[in-house]
Amino acid sequence: MTDNHNYNTPDKGSTDWHIPLNDNFKRLDTGVEIRDEEANIENYSPKSGAKFLAVDTGVRYIGDGSSWKELVIPSKIVERFKELEARIETLEEKGNEDDTEDGNSGSDADVVVPFDSSDQIQSTRDTCEIVTDPDGGNRNVLKVGWNEAGDLYGSSFSYYAEDYVNNEPQNAHARFWIYHPPEFEFYTNGPGGTKLPGFAHTDDAGWGHREPGVDGNGWSARGGIARPNHGWYNETSGPGWYNQVYHYDQDGDESDHLVGSELDPGFGQWHQIDQYVEMNTPGQNDGIYKVWIDGKMVSDNLLDPFDSSKVSNYDEIQFRDVDADYLHVHRFWFNCYFGGSYGAQRDDEALYFKNLKIWFDQGEQL
Predict the structure, then answer these.
(1) In this predicted model, what pLDDT tens digit does every residue of 22-69 receive, in sequence order?
(2) Any idea where the domains of the chain sit in the sequence?
(3) Is residue 235 within 8 Å of 257, Cβ to Cβ?
């Protein structure tokens, strides 16, 4: 006897050895599975216990002596398949989310920086490092830290357009993701948070209370984080995103602020930030600065935070006057600055970034 199929094995030297062998041949019709295309099933005899596998459809049949009966899949196997399908669907959805986080929408970017390895850190400051995603998982991200009480700069490096394109861009779009840890400690005065990355062409002015057209030429349009319930930027329980713009039509050396929005939920979750800038006709108020949070546009009016009566639209900005017509989208300034006239942070703080992409002279990417 064989172990698995009970086929007879004649003993060496036995007589009538043909009898067990003939019995084996009879059993082959039911013991060995038939494999063929389903349309050919009627070419085979449905002997009781015979098995037929349709190689083109995967359906299995068993003979009952007179016809082929389709085998019913046991409920446990059905449930198992449902579980596997659900897992596959989840993985596919996760893959789509990863594509979105990687900024795969829009045309090919001129600058692509995942921030997943140390050679992608341009900053010479030891406050920038590549770490594991604080939101979980195994991917790496950029940590920008303020390690000591009184630190102002977390990062200050730039991606210059001239290193990526052969012209002076008149528009640019940037996308990155930011993570605001729940334990982040805001300063108690003013906005209480940090200045964040954005576009700029700063010669002698356009940052640090240097008024464009008065202290020199230049402009900048950057983001920022404000403490909860601060009130300037529509934030309530969470931190607020605001937009700081130095331009030629501002009043005094204090930058104007585009109305922003609360990061909802703000703490402990990644948010996609998109920024788009388009240069104005020199001397005209037709420049554009737009900002989206998680795909929703939040830049609306350009406000003087100290004079609520002074309001203009996001598409009425004068980044350059007739005497500074050479200004263009010079760089994406990865500037994270905590402090200024409101004071520096008070403890070990950090923000996290990933998946930076920049498009020069390719228009909006949303």
Answers:
(1) 776 666 767 788 899 999 999 998 988 889 999 998 899 999 989 999
(2) 111-360
(3) no
pLDDT given for residue 129 in this prediction: 93
pTM, to two decimals: 0.69
Q: What is the rounded distance in angstroms from the CA atom of residue 58 to the CA atom of residue 50?
A: 16
Q: Measured between alpha carbons, how far is 54 from 31 in angstroms, rounded to an integer?
A: 17
- DSSP codes, 140-206: EEEEEEE-STT--EEEEEEEEGGGT-SS--SEEEEEEEEE--TT----SSTT-SEEEEEEEEESS-S
Reported as a single tens digit per residue, the pLDDT across 229-274 is 655 554 455 667 777 888 888 777 666 655 555 565 567 889 999 9
CA distance 45 to 71: 17
- Cα–chain center distance at 223: 18
111-360: CATH topology: Jelly Rolls (2.60.120)
Tokens of 167: 């012209």
Structure tokens at 236: 């309530």
Count of Cβ atoms closer than 10 Å to residue 283 Cβ: 14
Q: Give which of 209, 195, 174 is closest to 243, Cα–Cα.
A: 195
Beta bridge partners of residue 87, listed in sequence order = none
Q: DSSP string covering 135-147, please?
A: TSSS-EEEEEEE-
Question: Could you give the CA distance from residue 119 to residue 101 in angstroms, rounded to a whole number?
Answer: 21
